[in-house]
Amino acid sequence: MITEINIDALVGPSHHFGGLGVGNVASQQHAYRTSRPREAALEGLRKAALVASLGVPQYIFLPPPRPRFSWLRELGFSVNSSEQLSETLHTTPQAFSAAFSSAFMWAANMATVSAACDCSDNRLHVTPANLISSWHRAGEAAERTIDLNSLLSSLDSYSIHPQLSAIVPLRDEGAANHMRLCDTTGKIGINIFVHGDDPEPGTCDWKFLPRQTRAACEAVARRHQLDPQRTFYLRQHPVAISAGVFHNDVIATSHGRLLIHHELAFHEGQSELLRLDDCFQKATGAPLLRIEILTSDLPLDEALRSYFFNSQIVTPRASSLSNPAPQMVLISPQQCAEIPSTRRLIEQLIASTENPIEEVHYVSLEESMANGGGPACLRLRVPLERDDIDKLPRQLRLDRQLAERLSAAIERWYPESLELADLCDLSFAEELSQVSNQLQKAILL
Ligand code: SUG
């Protein structure tokens, strides 16, 4: 039996709005707004604690160190005084913001992960995403490779590959553009990769640079040794990308044998989707539960405002024999409860007996949402055997005690609010390293 663990990445104390998300309308709209790092971290932690309370194995990665002054130096900036930092902010705000970025919080972009049972060598394969499309995210792969190694090092067999080369044709944003469908045991898996680039470069007039290329998807599938017969490639719809759908997980979602996608998720995807339905049926002996949401039921702009497709779907564990768990639970952004079309859609999904979703939890993630990240963006799924889960380091597993300790550290040490100009104060950089120490303590206790 395969169980999905979730890894969430704690929001960092320098969380701010830098307007750097390529094709990410929310990030652009909220550029330079005052941020609330404390609330951002607490919101993310509460969401992860909710998932843990449903019996899903939940792990936490701490924020990597910020600021990245070495990177600013590499770009020729001097960073020895607050005045110099202030000058950097004014001349090149993108580089400045990137040095303090907390975008590592969106763990769905950390890596693409393949279950060992899907790979011909029977090893779990992981490729950290190179995230080369934007100013602020490319440095994350090296940092998260260390964290992933620490989490997985006690497993008997796994491969963490180097990130794909940092060249434009290999733009990779990880699990946000990958979906794994499987049977009820989790042992028979089908992998779907979603890319945004056009087959013949230059044929399409993009408003925003598509962040994932087909070449990157194919390279990941090859190195992970996935069965080509059970691997699918779908192309994101250009209309959706131009409207602000910068990752597939903003327009489609999946869990187990359930796939929910918008009518405008994929470009000319019909024949590939029919082949997918057929392949799933043949491989697992059961039909794929594929739900296509029409524009007439959910217009694209409401899909984006609500982030409905970024709802997280989990299989809870029963707390006792007399208290059976719902088959699947939806964790949706609060916005979905407020927008009538998505509220109705969720009510219909729960009422219908034709899909396994039986419950919804609405979560408030205002700070993350304002930067274009919903519940599913904040987690990376790793499909593992139960025995392997037992081997993972206990101190990274989120239980009530760890959640309380982290929450207390955040309340005590994180700034309540932050302007970009506050980051120019050199003493703030020292404070950030103290916060890191306090979070480490909370984990190691
Ligand atoms: O890469 N936002 C992130 C949001 C990532 C959401 N992840 C998934 N869909 N899986 C991004 O665009 C904004 C940062 C800023 O502007 O300060 C940002 O990076």
SSE map:
Blueprint: E1 2-9, H1 25-29, H2 37-53, E2 58-61, H3 69-74, H4 82-91, H5 93-99, E3 111-114, E4 124-128, H6 140-152, E5 158-160, E6 178-182, E7 189-195, H7 214-223, E8 231-235, H8 238-243, E9 252-255, E10 258-262, H9 270-284, E11 289-293, H10 300-306, E12 312-314, E13 328-333, H11 334-338, H12 340-351, E14 357-363, H13 366-369, E15 379-385, H14 386-391, H15 400-413, H16 426-444
Parallel strand pairs: 1-2, 4-5, 7-8, 10-11, 13-14
Antiparallel strand pairs: 1-15, 3-4, 6-7, 9-10, 12-13
Helix pairs in contact: 2-15, 4-5, 15-16
The structure holds N~2~-(3-carboxypropanoyl)-L-arginine.
Low-confidence stretches: none
Q: Gap between N and C termini, in Å?
A: 32 Å
Q: Which bin fits the share of residues in helices?
A: 25-40%
Count of extended strands: 15
**What is the number of helical segments per DSSP (H or I, 4+ residues)?**
16
Round the mean pLDDT to the nearest integer and report it: 96
Give, in spatial order, the strands making up the sheet with the most strands: 2-1-15
Strand content: 15-25%
Task: Please outline the major beta sheet.
Answer: 3 strands, mixed
Spatial shape = globular
Helix/strand-derived category reads: alpha/beta
Question: Cα-atom Rg, whole angstroms?
Answer: 21 Å
What are the distinct ligands in this entry? N~2~-(3-carboxypropanoyl)-L-arginine
Explain this structure.
By secondary structure, the protein is an alpha/beta fold. Helices cover 35% and strands 18% of the residues. The chain has 16 helices and 15 strands. The protein has helices at residues 25-29, 37-53, 69-74, 82-91, 93-99, 140-152, 214-223, 238-243, 270-284, 300-306, 334-338, 340-351, 366-369, 386-391, 400-413, 426-444; strands at residues 2-9, 58-61, 111-114, 124-128, 158-160, 178-182, 189-195, 231-235, 252-255, 258-262, 289-293, 312-314, 328-333, 357-363, 379-385. The strands form five sheets. It has a three-stranded mixed sheet with strand order 2-1-15. It has a three-stranded mixed sheet with strand order 3-4-5, covered by helices on one side. It has a three-stranded mixed sheet with strand order 6-7-8, sandwiched between helices. Strand 9 and strand 10 form a beta hairpin. Helix 2 packs antiparallel against helix 15. It is globular and about 65 Å long. The two termini are 32 Å apart. The mean pLDDT is 96. The structure holds N~2~-(3-carboxypropanoyl)-L-arginine (SUG). N~2~-(3-carboxypropanoyl)-L-arginine binds next to loops.
